[in-house]
Design goal:
This protein has about 280 residues and is of the alpha+beta class. It is built from six helices and ten strands. The strands form three sheets. A four-stranded antiparallel β-sheet has the order 1-6-7-5, with no helix packed on it. Strands 2-3-4-8 form a four-stranded antiparallel β-sheet, with helices on one face. The longest helix has 26 residues, at about 195-220. The structure holds zinc ion (ZN). Zinc ion binds near residues 243, 246, 248, 263 and 265.
Length: about 280
């Protein structure tokens, strides 16, 4: 699932390629991905995009009319721009073709059609968008604010980090990297964090996202990001390998749709969590 660094790099790539070009044709390949009926998707014809922005995991393309095309890629969706002459493929969910022959493409690569596209007058009409929490690089993302958020609900720290109501844009992979960076357990209960731990967490959120964005930007160069890249990650995706900090094997908890990776020695006081609910130790 694309997270904030990938979406930010995609946003940059789209900004260079889709602005100020008149839209000549719109082809919906997967009708289920279009979640709104009014304004109709055909109203894009003749319009131009004036801005590409991002809020949490939503990519927002603003039209000259003021309407917004909002895209959430969910688990296996992606965005790209095709140069003139490139053929559509079977993963295409939506093609927005510009008069110059290039196309903005929403792809859905999963078997379940999950990417969501909304065309709305007001962003408030997009489900969950208004409830997205603080952006990690906004001034408002302070240790004090984070500490307040942590006190609002008793939950495991990793669940908190990927819950979009608090910190915007984090997902499974970056949350693992952030928690390793600050040495906190993914299973620690939010209300038990000290302010000092919260300060470390706040710093790590920014440091790890910054590192991810810089890495992706260097890989992509002038191009457009084609897929997720977790190859540079320290701990996520490396269960069983030696922790780069202490040498202990990196542990894994598997859930139905994701895995959590952590170092028991560096993050959970030596405890290796055994079951799926990660509530008991072995
Ligand atoms: Zn370690």
């Amino acid at each position: 699932m694309p997270e904030m660094p990938e979406l930010e790099i995609l946003r940059e790539g789209l900004s260079l390629r889709v602005l100020d070009r008149p839209i000549a044709r719109v082809v919906v390949h997967q009708a289920a991905s279009i979640k709104t009926f009014y304004p109709p998707i055909e109203s894009l014809l003749g319009q131009r995009f004036t801005e590409v922005s991002r809020r949490g995991k939503f990519v927002i393309l603003t039209m000259e009319s003021g309407d917004n095309l909002v895209i959430h890629l969910m688990r296996s969706g992606w965005l790209t721009v095709r140069i003139p002459g490139q053929e559509p493929n079977r993963c295409d969910a939506l093609n927005i073709l510009f008069r110059d022959g290039s196309a903005l493409v929403v792809l859905e690569r999963g078997s379940k059609r999950k990417a969501c596209v909304y065309l709305v007058r007001e962003l408030a009409a997009v489900p969950f968008l208004n409830g997205v929490g603080v952006e990690p690089f906004d001034d408002g993302f302070t240790a004090e604010r984070l500490f307040e958020y942590l006190q609002t609900e008793r939950m495991q720290l990793k669940s908190f980090l990927i819950d979009q109501r608090f910190v915007a844009g984090l997902g499974n992979a970056y949350a693992d990297e952030i928690l390793f960076d600050c040495g906190l357990s993914p299973f620690k209960i939010t209300t038990t964090l000290t302010f000092e731990e919260t300060q470390r967490l706040q710093v790590s959120v920014r440091r790890i996202l910054d590192r991810g964005i810089a890495r992706l930007r260097s890989v992509v160069g002038e191009g457009i990001l084609e897929c997720e890249d977790h190859g540079f990650m320290t701990l996520h995706g490396r269960p069983g390998e030696a922790c780069p900090r202490c040498g202990a094997p990196i542990a894994e908890i598997r859930y139905s749709d994701r895995s959590t990776h952590y170092c028991p020695e560096c993050q959970s006081g030596g405890k290796v969590y055994a079951d799926r609910r990660a509530g008991t130790c072995r």
